[in-house]
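Incident log, support desk, overnight shift.

02:14 A customer reports that sequence design results differ from what the structure should imply. Their input is reproduced verbatim below. On-call engineer (initials T.W.) acknowledged and began investigating.
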């Protein structure tokens, strides 16, 4: 893929990431002479016409979002059997990497990150776009501390078409809302639950629910109440905020 040029415009330079749905490359836009990120769908998705239609529709919807905490989508295209999205290239690291390096974040920093994610969610929800896969991997943090949420709308297409607990959602099961874990309909409140999980992980150092396999974790999302380590001193207001976001009943979040 390195050296490939899509539509005589986007020159693939290097691989910078990979997930359950796609591989992400750094590329140069020859027309505007700037660096971009190109997300290329894995081949197994390219033969599912229903998924491709949803993918393109959601990507086009997300491209209409404009917010400082949302990664911009510039283009959606197809080259032969390859389907791709061209996005803003962000210098920095994702939140998952930051948590691996730091372990636990200071409360003030965690709240600042959570607030920026919430700001992005507000913008998306006002445009009837639900993320469906808020997790540290999808939270980019620039070198100057700005949060950029990636993949708005894209996960929704996947959840509507191909992803289930026995498939590629395994990597995200720690952040599934109870209604997602039960295969029920999702809305903006599912994103709030996932944000609560991310905030918990930032201040505790791990997600609230763990298990031997994805099904066990999903069951805990549905059945178990969140608890905090007794030896970790956290403000009661912060605990209350997290508990509110992690209500099992979406109407109570």
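02:41 Re-run completed on a clean worker. Output:
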């Amino acid at each position: 893929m390195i050296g490939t040029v899509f539509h005589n415009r986007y020159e693939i330079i290097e691989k910078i990431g990979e997930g359950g749905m796609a591989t992400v490359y750094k590329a140069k836009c020859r027309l505007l002479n700037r660096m971009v990120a190109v997300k290329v769908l894995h081949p197994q998705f390219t033969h599912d016409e229903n998924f491709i239609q949803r993918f393109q529709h959601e990507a086009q919807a997300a491209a209409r979002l404009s917010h400082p905490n949302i990664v911009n989508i510039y283009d959606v295209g197809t080259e032969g059997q390859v389907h791709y999205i061209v996005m803003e290239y962000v210098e920095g690291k994702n939140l998952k990497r930051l948590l691996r390096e730091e372990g636990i974040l200071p409360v003030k920093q965690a709240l600042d990150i959570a607030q920026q994610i919430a700001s992005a969610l507000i913008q998306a929800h006002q445009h009837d776009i639900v993320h469906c896969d808020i997790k540290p991997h999808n939270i980019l943090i620039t070198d100057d501390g700005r949060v950029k949420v990636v993949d708005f709308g894209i996960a929704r297409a996947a959840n509507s078409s191909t992803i289930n607990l026995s498939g590629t959602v395994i990597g995200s099961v720690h952040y599934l809302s109870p209604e997602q874990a039960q295969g029920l309909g999702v809305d903006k409140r599912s994103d709030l639950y996932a944000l609560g999980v991310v905030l918990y992980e930032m201040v505790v150092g791990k997600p609230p629910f763990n298990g031997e396999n994805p099904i066990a974790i999903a069951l805990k999302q549905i059945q178990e109440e969140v608890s905090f380590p007794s030896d970790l001193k956290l403000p009661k207001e912060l605990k209350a905020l997290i508990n509110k976001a992690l209500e099992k009943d979406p109407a109570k979040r």
